[in-house]
Write a structure and sequence with these properties.
Length: 468
């Protein structure tokens, strides 16, 4: 069966058709042989057996007819009727002689030959007795001829006719036996033909069933596998096919199913990895978005604080410039006396007030201004000794002027630096705002990627793989 299954479909069909054709040829050969036998037996019955019966019947009829002609010859005195009687007798004798001569070679049975020999002996005796009767008639001894006719001649006639009747019965029985044998042969031939036809039909049906099953079973398996693959079930175990076309189809389906199992397994792993990574990215982008928003808020607060600091520094710079101008005037008009000194004292008071706003950065200036303020107050109380201290005051005022100038320069530099820091903070705030927008977009994209990864996981999960 495996050899039959390994044959290609074309070769398999060819083998089946050849087998069916051979069975048909064998059936036809059997039918021809049977019909030839039936024809031979029919011909034997028609040509031989029937002919034997006909010849024996003809001989018997002519023997019976001949005795009447002999009686007519013995009893009739008319020359004309005697001549016709002699002609008819001769015809009767010739007929049964010819029949006996034709019958002899047709006999092929020992019993038939023995019966024929018996009839032949009776025929010879009968003919001899008839010839003796004719001699007696020719001698004009009608009484002796009649006595001889109804005596030994009639007995020889009965013996000949009896032998012919026995041979006729035997021939008729032989013909009947041949007819019955022919009928039995016909019945056997019919049974053989039916058996051969049934065998051919059964063989053809078996071959058709085997070929159909060898084609449809693998095809049904292939269709079932294809349906299961279409439904997402890749766990099918495909049996190994043979070497025919359907076997190649099953083997190709097995390789395809294995490739799909490997591919879907890789896709499932990749989908799980993408889902995990996209979830982590979405979580990280959410945290980054919150931190970026917090950083943007802090930068806005820093920018506002830098703006206040820049305003304060600008105010300090203006005050220092005013103090420097007054200190210069004080230095120039220090010799003018007390009125100018009072102006210096007032100016120094303003400087002291401004110095308190600068704080720790101009602490030394505050100390000097305080000393100047004390000195001015002391000079006011001691106008008398202003002359003596005016030089010291001028020197201190010049020092204050120098420090106030330095403070003014430092305030200008601070203001420029704070302006640059403010611009940088503003630019950083803009960049941070842009980053926040990009982070929101990235978070949205990550969330979309996560949803798509989950959808991909759901699609891949439809495929059912073989259990490990």
């Amino acid at each position: 069966m495996s050899f039959f299954r390994d044959l290609r479909i074309g070769a398999r069909l060819g083998v089946a058709f050849v087998a069916v054709l051979l069975m048909m040829v064998a059936t036809l050969a059997l039918a021809g042989w049977t019909m030839a036998g039936m024809h031979a037996r029919t011909e034997h019955i028609a040509v031989t057996e029937y002919r034997k019966v006909a010849l024996v019947g003809a001989a018997l009829d002519n023997v019976r007819g001949s005795i009447g002609r002999v009686m007519q010859i013995v009893g009739d005195t008319s020359p004309e009727r005697l001549g016709k009687a002699r002609e008819r007798l001769e015809a009767n004798v010739k007929t049964f002689d010819d029949a006996m001569a034709e019958l002899k070679p047709l006999l092929d049975d020992a019993e038939a030959v023995a019966l024929f020999d018996k009839a032949e002996a009776a025929r010879q005796r009968y003919k001899a007795e008839v010839a003796q009767v004719f001699k007696t008639v020719e001698n004009a001894d009608e009484g002796a001829a009649a006595a001889q006719l109804f005596g030994v001649t009639y007995e020889s006639l009965h013996a000949f006719a009896g032998a012919l009747r026995d041979l006729q019965k035997f021939s008729q029985k032989a013909m009947q036996d041949a007819t019955e044998e022919d009928a039995a042969a016909y019945a056997r031939a019919r049974v053989m033909m039916m058996v051969a036809a049934t065998l051919a039909l059964g063989t053809g049906a078996l071959l058709a069933w085997l070929i159909t099953r060898s084609i449809t079973v693998p095809l049904n398996t292939a269709v079932e596998v294809a349906d299961r693959v279409a439904a997402g079930d890749l766990s099918s175990r495909i049996p190994e096919g043979g070497r025919d076309e359907t076997g190649h189809l099953l083997n190709s389906l097995a390789r395809m199913n294995a490739a799909l199992v490997e591919l879907v397994g890789q896709l499932r792993g990749a989908a799980d990895s993408i889902a995990t990574s996209s979830s982590e990215i979405a979580t990280g982008n959410g945290d980054l978005s919150r931190r970026t928003e917090s950083q943007a808020s802090s930068l806005q607060q820093t920018a506002a604080s830098m703006e206040e600091l820049a305003s304060t520094v600008r105010s300090n710079a203006e005050t220092a410039s005013e103090a420097a101008r007054l200190a210069a005037e004080t230095s120039t008009g220090a010799g003018a006396g007390g009125e100018a000194m009072q102006r210096v004292v007032a100016t120094m008071q303003e400087i002291g007030s401004s110095s308190q706003r600068i704080g720790d950065i101009i602490g030394e200036i505050k100390t000097l201004i305080g000393q100047s303020r004390d000195t001015v107050e002391s000079g006011s109380r001691q106008v008398a000794d202003a002359g003596e201290r005016i030089a010291a005051i001028v020197a201190q005022v010049e020092r204050v002027n120098t420090l106030v100038g330095e403070i003014g320069n430092a305030s200008q530099e601070q203001r420029a630096g704070i302006d640059q820091v403010g611009q940088a903070v503003t630019a950083l705030d803009d960049v941070t705002q842009q980053n926040a927008a990009l982070v929101e977009q990235s978070a949205s994209a990550a969330e979309s990627l996560h949803r798509q990864a989950e959808a991909l996981q759901a699609l891949v999960a439809r495929f059912r793989l073989q259990s490990a």
